Amino acid sequence: MQYASKILNSKSSTLKSNRFFILLHGILPYNYKHESPLYLSNLSKSLQQSKLAQVFGCVRVVYNDALAMVKAVSEGEKWPSNADLQKLVITQAKQTAARNWLSSVSVVPLQQSVQDLGVAFKNWFAALKGNGKAKFPRFKKTLE
């Protein structure tokens, strides 16, 4: 909820007539007729916060699930690719009873969280070779 509050309270997130405009790609469905994100002016601020918090929570869970799968791979075995991780932690997870609530948000932020994990590993591998200071990726925790 803190991330959503920061976004909603920042000056960059308000437009004319104090309408809130989603600047983050894929959080809410697109209006395909005009190919621009929908305005949320008719949603209350608390509803906007809850929708953003829901998306951020799902992103955190997908990131943590993907990291757990990578950590579970035995030593000497090949780690799964980003595409394989997306299939496991997004597509297949949505079909289980424990994670079917992931279907309530757009898939774009969920895919981006797996890609972010891939970038974190890329930076860590570069640091192992002496190019950078990145550490092994860590699990994300809630701020509440």
Notes on the protein architecture:
The protein has 144 residues and is an all-alpha fold. The chain has one domain. The chain is 49% helix and 3% strand. It contains 4 helices and 2 strands; from the N terminus they run αββααα. It has helices at residues 2-9, 45-72, 82-94, 107-128, and strands at 30-31, 36-37. The protein has a two-stranded antiparallel ribbon. Helix 1 (2-9) packs across helix 2 and helix 2 (45-72) crosses helix 4. The radius of gyration is 17 Å and the shape is globular.
Mind sketching the topology for me?
Blueprint: H1 2-9, E1 30-31, E2 36-37, H2 45-72, H3 82-94, H4 107-128
Antiparallel strand pairs: 1-2
Helix pairs in contact: 1-2, 2-3, 2-4, 3-4
What's the domain count?
1
Output the strand order for the largest sheet: 1-2
Secondary-structure content class: mainly alpha
Number of strands: 2
The global form is globular
End-to-end Cα distance, whole Å, is: 7 Å
Low-confidence stretches: 11-36
Major sheet, described briefly?
2 strands, antiparallel
Query: If you average the pLDDT, what whole number results?
Result: 79
